[in-house]
Amino acid sequence: MKQPVRIAQRAFCTVFVLISTACSFPASDGAEGSETVGITAADSQPPESTPPGVTLVDLMDEQNSSQPIYLATRLGSETGAPLYVPESDDLGTWSCTQQCAENYAPFLAPADAQAFGAWSLQEAEGQHRQWMYHGKPLFLAVEKPGAAGDDGANQDVPAPGDPIQPEEATVTTVSKDVQPSGNAAEKGDGLTLALFGLARHLPLPPTITIEDLPVAGGQTLVTRDRMTIYFYTGNTEVEQNACGAVPCYAHWEAVEAPMMAQAVGDFAPAQQENGVVQWTYAGMPLFTYRGDFAPGQANGANQSEHWRVALLTRNYRPANVVVAEVAGRGHFLTTTEGKPLYNRLPFRYRFGGRNSFEGYIHNLYEEGKQLGTDGCDAECLETWQPFAAPPGAQPAGYWEIFERPDGTQQWAYQGYALYTNTADDGPNDVTETGLYEPLIGANARYDLADGVANNGVGKAAGLNWHVAKP
C-alpha cells in the first residue's frame, strides 16, 4: 500500500500548493488491512453492497409516541426474509447441528453468481453453492411441510439431520425481525441475525466510521460527527485549482489525524509541510466539504470531477431511477424521465405523526410489506400508476418486487410499493406529497389488517402519500 499512498499524496500537492509552497509526505510503515473493499483512485464506481437476490432491511425500534429509532440494517432474501450467520467467529469449530439443519437451509446462490468484495461462495449440498458474507455462510429459516396444521400432517418430512433443500421446504417470506441486541436467532441453533455494514468488519481510525448515506447511495466514510468525507482523486497534471474558480482551501478541509497516528488497515496518515497530518484511504487524501452543514448532506459531490464522496459500496438502484433534489423538498427518488416516485404509508399514532422532520424517513418495513399493493384501489389507480418492474428484474439492496393481482410486477423501496402520479410533469411538479386520506373503521375503502388500519385514538386510520425519500 505504500507506493499508491505516495502517488496520491503527490497528486494532493497540486491542490495544497494554494496554501503552502511545498508538500512533504513521508512514507508510512503501517500494516496492511485485514480486509479491503478494493477502492482506488481509478475506480469509477465502488462495488455493489449486495448481489442480486439479496436485500437490505432497516431495523427500527418503535417508540410509544416519538419517531422510530434506527438500530441496524440486516440482510434479507429476495422477499426480505431474514438471513442468518453462525454466531461463532471461529468457523473451524462451528457446524450446523441437527437442530440447525431442521430449522434452516443454506441460502443458495444462482448458478451464474460471482464472488466480489465481502461476498464469497462455498459448496453446499448437491450441486449448489451457498452465499457467504464476510466469510460466514448465510442461512434462511424454513417451515417444514407438515409442521403447520392438519393439512400437512401426511406430507413427507425430511428425517432429522437430512439436508433441507429449497424444494423440500417453504421459505419464510414474512420477515420476523429480532432485536440486533439479541445474540441468537429466534430458534437458536448457533445462528444469529446477519447484520449488514462495513463498519463491523473493516479496521477504522477512531475518528472515522462508515454509514449508509442515502443521498450518495451507499456505505460512505464519515467523521465521528457524521459529516460526509470525500476522496480527492486528481493527479499531478491537473491544474492546481481543481475545484473551481474559488481556491480549494476555501471549500475543503483535510480530515486530520493525530500527530503520532499509525496506519489502520487501508487508512494511513500523511504529513503536510505545515505540520498538519491528514488521513488517506487507499492512497487518496480525505476531506470534508465546508458546504455540508449537517450529517447526511453531500453538497460537495458535484464540485469537480476530481472530488467524490468517499463511497465504499453502492446500493442497488434500478437503471431508470435517479435521486433528484428540489429546493424545499430535499432529495427524493424520480424516474429518469423526471417523474417523482411516491409511496403510501399507513397512519402512525405518534408525536408529530408524519409531519415531523424524520416522519417520512424512519418507516417500519413490516408495515409496508403488510400493506403491499393494497394501498391503491381501482379508484386510486385512475390517478396513481404502479411503478412497474421490467421482466427479468431482480430484487437487490433496498429494492424488492411486489406481484400485483393482475400478475404484473411493481417495484417496492424499503418495503413500500412505489407509484407515479399522472399529474406530475417533472421533479419540480410534486402534486400530491403529504396528501392524507382518513379511513374510518368499517367505512374504509381499503381492507387493511389490524395493526395498520386500527391504530390510534378511536381506531381511526389513514394513508399518506409522500415522495419516496432515498
From TrEMBL:
It holds the Pfam family Lipoprotein_15. PROSITE patterns: PROKAR_LIPOPROTEIN. Keywords: Signal. Residues 1-22 form the signal peptide. Coiled coil: none annotated. Residues 34-53 are annotated as: Disordered. GO terms for biological process: alkane catabolic process. This is Lipoprotein.
